[in-house]
């Protein structure tokens, strides 16, 4: 694998013989499938890449609560409300495990929040689209969690131990999320013609943004070659996008839906679907902050941070009092 990457991206990826001895040992450990743990030596660029990816992943989980949270009060039954509430709470938990994993690399949670709130750190493009109907909640579970699982299952084998281990539980929970989304849609397509239309409309709007979740095409992916050499990523963006399409199209057919892609066609020879190109200009606009809901999403996160100031101040004041009391009693002994 590493040798292949050197060949495909020789301009940027160093060969083993160009590395200094410490870096060579590090790369050989990665090549032989060993995990890297927090206190071990790592190249600065490996640490920075992980902080970027893990913190962006954490931000995605946290911001990702907003489009679905929008529907908790309007879920059609008490049971659906309880399920959605639990799902949104799970996403908060995923964000917290991932922030913890990033903290092991020497960045604080406050710094990560600051990067999110200032717009410096990215979060997944998908969460900048609005949830207009109940079918959108089904579509998020089915397509967005479905794409997230496709991307995250290989991350369980990531070379950095804390990230790989955090992904194990996350993937289990995402599988439940994906099924709950599919179940919402399976019920709706068996309902009235208006409900079925609502599901088709949701698929029409979420299909292309879901394909964009995997990132730009391989030739435009600046980080993939190095991240694959370091086994942070195991697959390229296009490989995972192809797997997602191959898995999802039969599910759309089962639901009696039409995937909104005139170029979608089974290719017997490759044993997968050919499909159209996502609108990459839209993707780059969204990740530059100009998607339909970017301002609303960041506004909600900044407001939550501001609203929580009194609580954080209270916790800090309490901790200081406890520490002072403890110091006094130690001094008195
Ligand atoms: N959105 O060179 P690459 C979820 C950026 S979790 C925004 O290919 P890389 C659960 C990329 O950061 C969803 N930005 O980058 C849930 C880079 O910019 P930078 C999140 C994107 O890192 C479900 C530039 O483009 N999952 O959904 C996106 O090698 C339901 C060049 O790209 C993860 O974060 C994008 N879609 O590959 C929650 C998984 N794609 O940083 C609630 C972990 C690319 O240089 C409800 N992350 N960019 O400024 C990854 O696997 C990778 O980071 C990729 C991107 C595959 C996302």
TrEMBL record:
Name of the featured protein: Phenylacetic acid degradation protein PaaA
PANTHER family, per the entry: 1,2-PHENYLACETYL-COA EPOXIDASE, SUBUNIT A, PHENYLACETIC ACID DEGRADATION PROTEIN PAA
Native source organism of the sequence: Sinorhizobium americanum
Gene: paaA
GO cellular component: cytosol
SUPFAM superfamilies per record: Ferritin-like
GO molecular function (one): phenylacetyl-CoA 1,2-epoxidase activity
Pfam family name, one: PaaA_PaaC
GO biological process, one term: phenylacetate catabolic process
Classification via Gene3D superfamilies: 1.20.1260.10
InterPro entries with a match to the protein in the record: Aromatic_CoA_ox/epox (IPR052703), Ferritin-like (IPR012347), Ferritin-like_SF (IPR009078), PaaA (IPR011881), PaaA_PaaC (IPR007814)
């Amino acid at each position: 694998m590493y040798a292949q990457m050197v060949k495909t991206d020789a301009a940027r990826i160093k060969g083993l013989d160009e590395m200094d001895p410490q870096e060579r040992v590090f790369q050989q450990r990665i090549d032989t499938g060993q995990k890297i743990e927090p206190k071990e030596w790592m190249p600065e660029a490996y640490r920075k890449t992980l902080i970027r990816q893990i913190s962006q992943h954490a931000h995605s989980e946290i911001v990702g609560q907003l489009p679905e949270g929008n529907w908790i009060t309007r879920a059609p039954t008490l049971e659906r409300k309880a399920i959605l509430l639990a799902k949104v709470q799970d996403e908060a938990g995923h964000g917290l495990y991932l922030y913890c994993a990033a903290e092991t690399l020497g960045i604080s949670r406050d710094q990560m929040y600051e990067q999110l709130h200032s717009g410096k750190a990215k979060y997944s493009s998908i969460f900048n689209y609005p949830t207009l109907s109940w079918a959108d909640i089904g579509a998020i579970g089915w397509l967005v969690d479905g794409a997230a699982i496709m991307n995250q299952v290989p991350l369980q084998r990531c070379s950095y131990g804390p990230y790989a281990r955090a992904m194990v539980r996350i993937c289990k929970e995402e599988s439940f999320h994906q099924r709950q989304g599919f179940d919402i849609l399976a019920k709706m397509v068996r309902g009235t013609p208006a409900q079925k239309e609502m599901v088709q409309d949701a698929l029409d709007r979420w299909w292309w943004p879901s394909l964009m979740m995997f990132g730009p095409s391989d030739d435009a992916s600046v980080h993939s070659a190095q991240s694959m050499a370091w086994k942070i990523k195991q697959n390229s963006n296009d490989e995972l996008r192809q797997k997602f399409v191959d898995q999802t199209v039969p599910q759309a057919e089962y639901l009696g839906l039409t995937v909104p892609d005139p170029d979608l066609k089974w290719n017997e020879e490759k044993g997968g679907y050919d499909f159209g190109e996502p609108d990459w200009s839209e993707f780059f606009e969204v990740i530059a902050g100009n998607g339909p809901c970017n301002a609303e999403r960041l506004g909600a996160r900044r407001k939550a941070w501001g609203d929580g100031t009194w609580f954080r101040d209270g916790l800090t004041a309490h901790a200081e009092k406890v520490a002072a009391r403890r110091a006094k009693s130690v001094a008195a002994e």
